[in-house]
From TrEMBL:
This protein's name: Helix-turn-helix domain-containing protein
GO molecular function: DNA binding
The keyword Electron transport is assigned to this record: no
Key words of the record: DNA-binding, Transcription, Transcription regulation
Coiled-coil residues: none
Domain HTH hxlR-type: 14-110
Amino acid sequence: MNEELMNKATSQKCTQVEHVFSILDKKWMGLIVEVLLEGPQRYKDIAAKIPTISDRILVERLKELADNDILVRDVYPDSQVRVEYSLTEKGYSLKNVMSEVHIWADKWMD
């Protein structure tokens, strides 16, 4: 019985890790999170900081991050509508993860 519970717990942890990687493993996701770690950004500012990403993909990735509660899209109804993207608490908690990924990459990637 104990072994069965351990296998179930291990399986659940693996599923959670796989879900995280299924989100962050997509091209541009890490860079978008990195840009938003600097603070709230307008769409054009994110696009300017990642100039090789297409508009279609940027829109798609922002929506995916919002759907996973990693970022929020705030609309400010000024004279011209202003939209800003910012990390949620969940998204901002990726800061240490991203830092560790950079350390690992610096050590092991050519």
